[in-house]
Specification:
Helix content of chain B: over 70%
Largest sheet of chain B: none
Order of helices and strands of chain A: HEHEHEHHEEEHHHEHEEEHHHEHEHH
CATH class of the largest domain in chain B: Mainly Alpha
Structural class of chain B: mainly alpha
CATH topology of the largest domain in chain A: D-Maltodextrin-Binding Protein, domain 2
Mean pLDDT of chain B: 83
Strand content of chain A: 5-15%
Oligomer: heterodimer
Distance between the termini of chain A: 74 Å
Number of helices of chain A: 15
Largest sheet of chain A: 4 strands, mixed
Number of strands of chain B: 0
CATH architecture of the largest domain in chain B: Orthogonal Bundle
Low-confidence stretches of chain B: 1-12, 358-372
CATH superfamily of the largest domain in chain B: MetI-like
CATH architecture of the largest domain in chain A: 3-Layer(aba) Sandwich
Number of domains of chain B: 3
Order of helices and strands of chain B: HHHHHHHHHHHHHHHHHH
Number of helices of chain B: 18
Mean pLDDT of chain A: 90
Shape of chain A: globular
Distance between the termini of chain B: 15 Å
Helix content of chain A: 40-55%
Strand content of chain B: under 5%
Largest interface: A-B, 30 and 32 residues
CATH class of the largest domain in chain A: Alpha Beta
Number of domains of chain A: 2
Structural class of chain A: alpha/beta
Strand order of the largest sheet of chain A: 2-1-3-10
Radius of gyration of chain A: 22 Å
């Protein structure tokens, strides 16, 4: 009988725990966004408590974008996902955890912010790199991660490809360009962080292709040893946000989760995005930072080079795609 | 083996070759020694010192802040301190049981069991993690059920320990002399079977009747603490058993047989004869197991889900801090793990002298074949 009481007390505790977690949200995101979401979460929880009296705790989970998507598919209890690429959201959606129309739930195709790929060069830009064709000049070493294994990697590939196609080059021109480009990559790291280490710590290479926000962090961290070069043209990176329907319905957190993502479109949140070097969706806020923080880059959407992200990935990166035909690992 | 055993003849050629090796010219000896020292300094000493230098690069105050001011880091330390002891206790029980079974009994599948115990050594930790994802993940075998109504398994799970408690109590209460065994002890097998079934049924039914567990709630295994415990326990489970099996085989069953023939029951024999004989092997196994469990990365990485302040253990935290360009922070946490490793090493060296080897145990000296 005593044991039963103990068990009952324990279950009451557990039930209490369950009740308390009702106001916890889990935001599953990709690697470099930790500081960003921490800022946004602090502001949102304050605001939401003021407006509704409900105290929300927002937990964050960060990792490689595809790994994170995989974890959500395998049962990580994400209320919202804020991943780096459409491909990852699409993978989650395909398992039925998110309804197929997820992309239309929030303004601007569920894109509260966007980004792009820029160049990071050594101090003073000794090789005079200003545009994509400069990357394949003799003697220039390019650092970029493997498109096969890294989100940054394939985005850089798409950017390089598009820089030729959007300017009117033919498919053959683009193939020639990326062939030469990847010949000038001395080390093809498997992930974005590895590439950064290669470039910054090991001091290998003359130019590093990086997401704009990561480029800013990298330059700030290097304390004057590096600088950013904005190419005139680059790709539009689209890190969508989405509510994971299955999870919010089961955990009864839909209302809060939707309020949370809606909040990311507010002026306050848009400012936070800009301060963390992500390009805000709001034109007015973006204009404020354009020219100072953000370079004037013509950003082409993925549709300029393929039907959509899955199509681009299949064409260029997937098994037997363009990358397979142009890239020979070193030493072969 | 000591030189006074039957192995002397077998080693007849050994002294000659030893002398030759020792008579190598001085430059060979010193060359080898300096190569060894250089390699150790470059690969071990310098990186270890570097960890502490980097951790303390911004002063001791910042170092402490890095460790204790960041709530996520603090939580990761707490999580490791929760996960590791649970995994350790589980492995201790398992290791004792397995070593006992393998060292004391002959049964079909004994070799297979010995091989299976070593499996976690040969399986990559990442694969171990994925294995748990395959079992407990939403796309895996048990995932959908656990998510729908996971707590439904709890009555069964909690009834199992109750049955174990019942069986142990049964043996403890069993009168020592055959003559005094009446009632249920006259037919121990039948009584055990019926009693176990009764206890199991009672607990299961009781918990279901009083609705002890919440209904239709998801029970989180992976991406939560239980998954971390499982993964850690899996990769570290050979340690205790591996340490105990040779010790128990070397000690042999003689003293235990003597104890039983003098009237000790199983429990007394275990505590007063077996445990003192194997205690250093046991402690040694626990230390190794602990060292590995604290530092476990691969398997835990796969099942963690990386929720900051919730499922990040210390090694995962180090990686995350590193990813965030917080080098002093990541080195601060790394220095704690390194300190732990150094303490483990010292404890291990101290203990190594105490672990009874086959040579110096009296039972072994008199009867070299015992336990084989």
């Amino acid at each position: 009988m005593k044991r039963l009481f103990a068990a009952a007390a324990m279950s009451a505790l557990l039930a209490g725990g369950v009740a308390a977690t009702e106001t916890t949200l889990l935001n599953v995101s990709y690697d470099p966004t930790r500081e960003l979401w921490r800022d946004i979460n602090a502001n949102f929880t304050r605001l939401y408590e003021k407006q509704t009296g409900i105290k929300v705790t927002i937990k964050q989970s960060h990792g490689g974008s595809s790994t994170q998507a995989r974890a959500v598919i395998d049962g990580l209890d994400a209320d919202v996902v804020t991943l780096a690429s459409y491909l990852d959201d699409d993978a989650i959606s395909k398992t039925g955890l998110m309804r197929a129309d997820w992309i239309d739930r929030f303004p601007n195709r569920s894109l509260p912010y966007t980004s792009t790929v820029v160049f990071v060069v050594r101090k003073g830009n000794p090789k005079g790199i200003t545009d994509w064709p400069d990357l394949v000049k003799p003697g220039v070493e390019v650092i970029t991660p493997n498109p096969k294994t890294s989100g940054n990697g394939y985005l850089s590939f798409f950017a390089a490809w598009g820089s030729v196609i959007v300017r009117g080059g033919s498919r053959q021109d683009a193939i020639d360009f990326v062939t030469r480009l990847y010949k000038q990559v001395p080390v093809l790291d498997s992930g974005a962080r590895g590439a950064t280490t290669t470039f910054v710590q090991k001091r290998i290479g003359d130019v590093h292709l990086a997401w704009e926000n990561e480029a800013h962090l990298e330059v700030r961290e290097a304390k004057g040893d590096l600088e950013i070069v904005n190419p005139p043209i680059s790709i539009l990176a689209e890190p969508h946000v989405a509510v994971v329907d299955e999870n919010v319905d089961r955990r009864k957190t839909r209302e809060i989760a939707e309020a949370y993502l809606t909040y990311t479109y507010s002026d306050e949140a848009q400012e936070i995005f800009a301060r963390h070097f992500y390009r805000p969706n709001n034109e007015a806020v973006l204009k404020k930072y354009l020219g100072t923080v953000f370079g004037d880059i013509q950003r082409f959407p993925i549709t300029a080079i393929a039907r959509d992200f899955p199509d681009a990935h299949k064409q260029f990166i997937g098994e037997g795609g363009v990358f397979d035909t142009i890239y020979k690992p070193k030493g072969q | 083996m000591s030189a006074d055993g039957p192995s002397v003849g077998h080693r007849a050629t050994a002294p000659g070759s030893i002398r030759q090796a020792q008579q190598d010219p001085a430059w060979v000896r010193w060359g080898l020694i300096s190569i060894a020292i250089t390699v150790v300094v470059i690969l071990v000493v310098i990186p270890v010192i570097n960890i502490f230098v980097s951790a303390l690069s911004e002063g001791f105050g910042v170092y402490c802040d890095n460790l204790f001011a960041d709530s996520d880091t603090r939580d990761s330390i707490m999580l490791t301190l929760t996960v590791v002891p649970i995994a350790l206790v589980a492995n201790l029980i398992f290791g004792l049981a397995a070593a006992w079974a393998i060292a004391r009994f002959e049964f079909p599948g004994r070799t297979l069991l010995t091989a299976l115990i070593d499996l976690p050594f040969s399986v990559s930790p990442v694969v171990a993690g994925l294995m748990f994802v395959l079992i407990f993940g939403l796309q895996g075998y048990l995932g959908p059920f656990l998510r729908r109504d996971g707590y439904a398994v709890m009555p069964y799970l909690t009834s199992l320990p109750a049955v174990v408690v019942f069986i142990v109590t049964f043996f403890l209460l069993q009168p020592r002399r055959e003559k005094e065994r009446r009632g249920p002890w006259k037919h121990p097998k039948l009584a055990l079977l019926a009693g176990s079934a009764f206890v199991f049924g009672l607990f299961c039914f009781g918990q279901q009747y009083f609705e002890v567990w919440p209904r239709n709630q998801s029970l989180k295994i992976i991406f939560a603490t239980p998954g971390l415990v499982l993964a850690t326990a899996f990769v570290t489970f050979p340690f205790v058993a591996r340490e105990l099996i040779p010790v128990m085989e070397a000690v042999g069953p003689d003293e235990e047989l003597a104890a039983v023939s003098l009237g000790a029951n199983g429990w007394q024999m275990f505590w007063t004869v077996t445990v003192p004989n194997i205690r250093w092997g046991l402690v040694y196994g626990i230390i190794l197991c602990n060292a590995r469990a604290v530092g476990e990365f691969g398997a835990v990485y796969v099942v963690s889900g990386h929720i900051a302040g919730q499922t990040d253990t210390m090694p995962l935290r180090i990686e995350k801090l590193f990813q965030e360009y917080n080098l002093p922070g990541s080195f601060a946490v790394a220095s704690v793990l390194t300190l732990l490793a150094i303490f483990t090493l010292i404890a291990k060296i101290k203990l190594e002298r105490k672990v009874p080897s086959a040579d110096d145990h009296p039972a072994m000296r008199n009867a070299p074949e015992a336990g084989k």
